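Example complex used in Figure S2.
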Amino acid sequence: MKRFILLMAAMLVAVGASAQKVVTTVNVVNAKGETVSVASILPKGKPVVLSFWDTSCKPCLQEMGAISDCYFDWMDEFDFEVVAVSTDDSRNSSKALPLAKGRGWPFVIALDKNGDFKRSMNVQSNPTMFILDKTGKVVYTHIGYTPGDEQAVYETLKKL
Amino acid sequence: MRKIIFTILLSAGAFSASAQSFWEKGYVTGGLESNSIYYVEDPAGGSVRPDGGFGTNNYLKIDCGLGKFEAGLQMEGYFPQLLGYPEQLKGFSLSNRYLRFRDKGFTATVGDFYGQYGSGLLFRAYEERSLGLNTALEGVNLGYNWDGKISVSAMVGFPKAFKEYNYGSRIIGADFSVNLMELAGHGDLFNLSLEGSFINKHQALESEWMEGLISPDVNGGSARLLFDWNGLTLKGEYVLRDSDVSVYNNYETGKSRAILAEGTYTSGGFGANLTFRRILNAGFQSDYNQGTMFTALNYIPALTQQHTYSLASLTPYQSQMDGEVGGQADVYYFFARGSKLGGNRGMRVHTNFSTFYGPSPMPEIKADELYFRDLTLDAERWWGRHVKTVVLYTWQTYNNRVGAHPSYEFRRSHTIVGDVTYKINNKHAVRAEYQHLWSGQGDGNWCAGTVEYTISPGWSFSVSDMWNYGFTRIHYFNGGLSYSRSKIRAALNFGRFREGYQCAGGVCRLIPAYTGANFTLTTSF
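Predicted assembly (685 residues):
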């Protein structure tokens, strides 16, 4: 039990730290099936919504659907891109792209089949969303999704 | 001593986080996850209350980078482990530590690492905390990627068995991938890649009687082909390996074979995929004395629809390592916004069909025996700006001979789900879900309902009940709340949970029935 309390204390220390970076040298698989570095899938010079999701995660599909519904309205106001990183392993990774297209998501899709990118970003559970500013710095992080959370995404993007 | 190391590392992490000069050149990042359950006595439903009535699984991971170097470690604490997790995990462990160098496509890792060759049929080392699973290797892993044209890697390491590394077993592996069109300078036309892998497991024999029966070396290889053109992707993989002769495969000596074929097509709002797989004697363990998922060297997931509604996933299928053949097909379609069927926000429809067969247990019957079949249809649509509905139907046939409690009986079920979300305004929403399952076998009929109220950003409150009114007449009630803010998520649930498989990816673990309060905390920094 003491160790448990120690871990809880560690968590509070951890939360005090910030300024997370995206490790862009990690490899992912792009929509063509090629293994590429994260740097090559992140658009340069504009804000990026970087979302970790998987095909069997209900809140993930809700979140991506909500962003998709707002996507073109937001694009009328400011430039940004959404990079949706599927963390599905080989059970469902072949479904990720058809699902994204078949749900009308106008996003860049990447596959992180063995969780290398997810681990490098310390993503504990899906969905986890990051917003990167034009320089690639993480300015917003959110774990989980509840209907209406897209409003905070909109407000953050609008400021960038 | 471990506590001292633990404290020093935390202090170092916190200090580094505040050191501005360090942040300009490098980074420290990490995550912490804690999952605890307080178990209570409950005579209904065969609930189990472990000694002490408490379990907690905790993970602290810290990574840092400076220039071309990265380093990290992970600490795990099971004080004790949650019900259903193996006893061997109990206690504290420094489970992963590594030092990595990356430069111009070259990667070298010393320490503990994960990896996967192809789809994982031949080799996969990975972590899945929800199952208590961590099959990292400890050793050296080298890789080189030449501008996406050629990729090669090689490794040597010792496999992890529960929370310790097994230095009596050594794994050697190599993998390559050649993108032929990129190499020819025509990568813009289409993508054609050839890939291959090799794996060797060496484990000294413990007894003389094993000689001639069990080989100290198990060798295997795979060949893969990838073609991608204009939304059409075709993949093929063939694996041939020595049998991993052991108790768990009944000392089967025949070669292990696997073939996997996948095709996907996407265009506009349409997406489809088709998968076929045949496996034979596919189990591969890092230790011939073991036979569990915690010591597996490869990954053979069930290729079926992974359901998220509770009644649709009462009896999830698991791959049969001895041998099976089958596949699945998915079709997704998006009725565009503004169309007659799509309405203001479009309508999403999906169907999946999956089926798997295996050898009949009766030699006189030559035909393969049905193991599992599932036909699922679902649709999602907004009605105006406030109401969203999801409807789902699934028809499943499950052969109990491959279940947790084998019997010569098929369980056939029809399940419907209606899920309605009413978005009151930009902050408040309420969701109600009703499920019904009809079955003439097993526990018979079930129904389930959930009501969830959410306040954005972050708050969620829910109550649910799952009732088996066909046989046991037990209610599995549950209530919970969760809160998310930035990098923290906390959730508290209380309720009764039935015995069943907990699945992550394609691997499932049987969890005994229990009643209790579950507290989960996750954060990253």
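The radius of gyration of chain A is 16 Å. Chain A touches chain B through 68 residues (CB under 8 Å).
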